[in-house]
Fold:
Amino acid sequence: MQNRNNDPKQKELEELVIEVKSVVKVNKGGRQRRFSACVVVGDRKGRVGLGIGKAGEVPDAIKKAIQAANKNLVRISLVEGRTIQHEITGVNGAAKVFLRPAPAGTGVVAGGAVRAVLELAGVRDITSKSLGSRTKLNMATATINALKSVKSIEEVARLRGKTEEEILG
Structure:
């Protein structure tokens, strides 16, 4: 999908529509039908964002979701530019996503919205397990929550007031 922004710093971001669904609001005069879109954007180098947008037409909903995703960009730290530091579980609502780093060459072992988020974040080797609810939006948000809470060795050393060698053993 083409990037619709003219902003030069946003040019490197890719977009992927996770879900487009019809939503209905019941008014006194009848049903009001709109469309809701869930979009993930990322640069495949450690930046990823998730956004949702609602509008009367599908293209407008997608455009709003892309703008929301660009505002919610998150930076994640990758080991060797391919996987995460440690095992982590992300939660959003009833959806849980368990992420585990994998050796080089494994690929992205994930499905649906989790795969979309991980690929656009730049993770190339990882395994995942989806627990609980399988709602696409909640699964994607749980994945982003998990990626946000991954800590690098430098961060852990700084928080504990130790050197990296002391932590690694």
Q: What stands out?
A: Residues 88 and 99 are 5 Å apart (CA to CA). The chain has two domains: 8-74, 76-151.
